């Protein structure tokens, strides 16, 4: 994995951590991210399923493409802008997109995330 892709993945994981982001690790098993850290220049994450730190470069996030947003979600996103100042509106949008697992950074197209579909949805209860 290119260093810039690993950095992008790490930044995205950090923003999604409070929202219960799931990843595929080493091409097979699904993990719920519980903690993220850096040792030296290498980003790692922890999962309750495995003891110890796991390499961020060996995971792919499960994310929804922006095109999958429903009309109802579009309304909810617009209502998430509850603050008076413009930069707070943008932060509220980002938080909402992270909480609903949307890929606003293009990670699916870069091969860093797996597209959540009706048939392939680890977030489904």
List keywords for this structure.
alpha/beta, 7-stranded mixed beta sheet, 3 helices
Concise overview:
The chain is an alpha/beta fold. The chain has helices at 3-16, 71-79, 86-99; strands at 22-25, 29-39, 42-47, 50-55, 59-65, 102-103, 113-115.
Describe this structure in words.
The chain is of the alpha/beta class and 125 residues long. It has one domain (3-115). 30% of the residues lie in helices and 31% in strands. Strands 1, 2, 3, 4, 5, 6 and 7 form a seven-stranded mixed β-sheet that branches. Strand 1 (22-25) and strand 2 form a beta hairpin. The radius of gyration is 15 Å and the shape is globular. 20% of the residues are buried.
Gap between N and C termini = 32 Å
Gyration radius, rounded: 15 Å
Q: Strand content of the residues, in percent?
A: 25-35%
What overall form do the CA principal axes indicate? globular
Helix tally equals: 3
Largest sheet: 7 strands, mixed
Structural class: alpha/beta
Order of helices and strands: HEEEEEHHEE
Helix content: 25-40%
Count of the separate structural domains: 1
Mean pLDDT: 88
Number of strands: 7
**Uncertain stretches of 5 or more adjacent residues:** none
């Amino acid at each position: 994995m290119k260093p810039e892709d690993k950095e992008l993945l790490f930044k995205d994981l950090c923003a999604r951590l409070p929202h219960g982001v799931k990843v595929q690790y080493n091409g097979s098993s699904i993990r719920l991210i519980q903690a993220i850290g850096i040792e030296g220049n290498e980003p790692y994450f922890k999962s309750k399923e495995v003891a110890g730190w796991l390499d961020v470069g060996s995971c792919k996030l499960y994310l929804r493409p922006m095109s999958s947003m429903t009309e109802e979600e579009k309304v909810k996103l617009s209502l998430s802008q509850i603050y008076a100042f413009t930069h707070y509106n943008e932060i509220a949008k980002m938080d909402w997109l992270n909480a609903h697992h949307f890929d606003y950074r293009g990670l699916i197209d870069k091969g860093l995330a797996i597209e959540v579909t009706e048939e392939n949805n680890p977030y489904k209860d």
